[in-house]
Design a protein that fits this description.
By secondary structure, the chain is mainly α. It has nine helices and no strands.
Length: 252
């Protein structure tokens, strides 16, 4: 919530700054001089707007892919937890109950503890989750399948356990694409230029011109803000919730 309020304040401040710059420019140059150059300014503005739109689309597409990839990684982790939970039913009640309890504890520590650690800089892995995971590995390792069905289930359980570890580490340390700094520079510079070009037009009503500048500015900087937040799905405006694990615990 604090991040959202901060971004809204930045957008409002930049929009007010654009209005102040427009009023200063309008008084400095004069409305009559601006009107005489509407035709040329309109042609150039259309080119600038098209270039800026392509740049924003490129950045937004890359950021959206980042968000989708994060959702897939989190869902894959939950799938392995659900698989292990079902496979535990093939073993004696006492052994299966121990494995199920550790799986529930693992999911709970991820949702309530480890997930939020990614918001802050530093080690994203939670010591509590790490301890539960090692306990889960030990419990599975100590299982002793007595029947063919249990041996088959045990083999699948070991495979799911290793896959769970891989999915967890991908969530914690997986290499994620980063928007190049040059692209961020072009997007931000394009926003200032696009807003700046609206000042080369003059409307008879100063109030209407102020509203126009505010709307354009809010629209542009809102898009840039969304790009910056969706680009980091685990520490953005609203931290991406572990929907898959939450849904699985609700069904247990």
């Amino acid at each position: 919530m604090q991040v959202f309020v901060l971004n809204c304040a930045i957008i409002l401040a930049l929009s007010v700054l654009a209005v102040v710059a427009m009023l200063w420019f309008r008084r400095r140059v004069g409305t009559d001089a601006l009107r005489r150059n509407h035709e040329v300014a309109g042609f150039v503005y259309s080119v600038v707007g098209a270039i800026f739109a392509v740049t924003v689309a490129l950045g937004a597409d890359t950021a959206h892919d980042e968000y989708i990839q994060a959702e897939k990684v989190a869902a894959a982790e939950a799938i392995q937890v659900a698989n292990l939970y079902q496979l535990a039913d093939w073993f004696p009640q006492e052994d299966g109950k121990l494995v199920k309890g550790l799986l529930l504890q693992y999911a709970r520590t991820v949702v309530e503890n480890e997930w939020q650690r990614s918001v802050h800089k530093g080690e994203p892995a939670s010591p509590e989750t790490e301890a539960v995971f090692h306990g889960l590995m030990k419990a599975v390792r100590e299982l002793q399948p007595a029947t063919i069905q249990q041996q088959t289930a045990y083999t699948e359980m070991v495979q799911s356990l290793f896959q769970l570890r891989e999915d967890r580490y991908n969530r914690l340390y997986g290499k994620r694409s980063e928007l190049p700094p040059l692209l961020w520079f072009v997007v931000i510079l394009g926003g200032f230029i696009t807003i700046g070009f609206t000042m080369f037009f003059s409307m008879e009503s100063t109030k209407a011109h102020i509203v126009l500048i505010l709307l354009v500015s809010v629209l542009i900087w809102s898009n840039v803000m969304v790009m910056s937040q969706v680009h980091h799905p685990f520490n953005g405006i609203n931290v991406t919730p572990p929907r898959a694990l939450i849904a699985w615990m609700a069904r247990i």
